[in-house]
UniProtKB/TrEMBL annotation:
The active site is at H128. SUPFAM superfamilies: Nucleoside diphosphate kinase, NDK (SSF54919). Coiled coil: none annotated. SMART domains: NDK. ATP binds at K11, F59, R94, T100, R111, N125. This is nucleoside-diphosphate kinase.
Length: 162
């Protein structure tokens, strides 16, 4: 199996609902390692670049307001960004995150447990989780400087989980 990295964001609704602990606990079932972590006040440029594949969608502006926490205001207008690393990380984390539409997500998944659809039709799905390894590489570069990511963490066998 490939060692992969991916980007996880706890979105502003996750922070506002005090779900960070629950989300990280669920993600820890994957046994992946966190190699980058920070809180980010998301600029419009960053939000647009992150969601560039959705720029033609009718919900694009609402989506930008959502990821920037504009609809919640201070102090919820930020996200927690993490880089995880591990074997087969993307597909394993996507499974724990659940489907994009929170109403269709498995209800033991994070999005199925805590997500909802807003009256404006935006999927308020609590976390972002990279969808494939190449998208993950693009996103990690966008959100993290190289020096913000821990390099010497593998081989994974040396990490002892008590
Ligand atoms: P994902 O976040 O699962 O990788 P995506 O990149 O297609 O999915 O979409 C990014 C975000 O945009 C998603 O987390 C929620 C929102 N979104 C996607 N499709 C939507 C839709 N049809 N209606 C409303 N919001 C949507």
């Amino acid at each position: 199996m490939e060692i992969e990295q991916l980007l996880i964001l706890v979105k502003p609704d996750g922070i506002k609902k005090s779900l960070t602990g629950n989300i990280l606990t669920k993600l820890s079932e994957s046994r992946m390692v966190i190699i980058g972590a920070k809180i980010v006040k998301v600029s419009r440029d960053l939000a647009e670049a992150h969601y560039c594949h959705l720029k033609d969608k009718l919900f694009f502006n609402e989506l930008l307001d959502y990821i920037r926490g504009k609809i919640y205001g201070e102090p919820w207008d930020r996200v927690l960004a993490f880089v995880y690393q591990g074997e087969d990380a993307v597909s394993r984390m996507r499974k724990i995150a659940g489907a994009t539409n929170p109403e269709e997500a498995d209800h033991v998944s994070i999005r199925g447990s805590y997500g909802r659809i807003t009256t404006k039709g935006v999927y308020e799905n609590v976390i972002h989780c990279s969808s494939d390894p190449s998208e993950a590489a693009r996103e990690i570069k966008l959100w993290f400087k190289p020096e913000e990511i821990v390099k010497e963490i593998y081989p994974v066998k040396k990490i002892v989980v008590e």
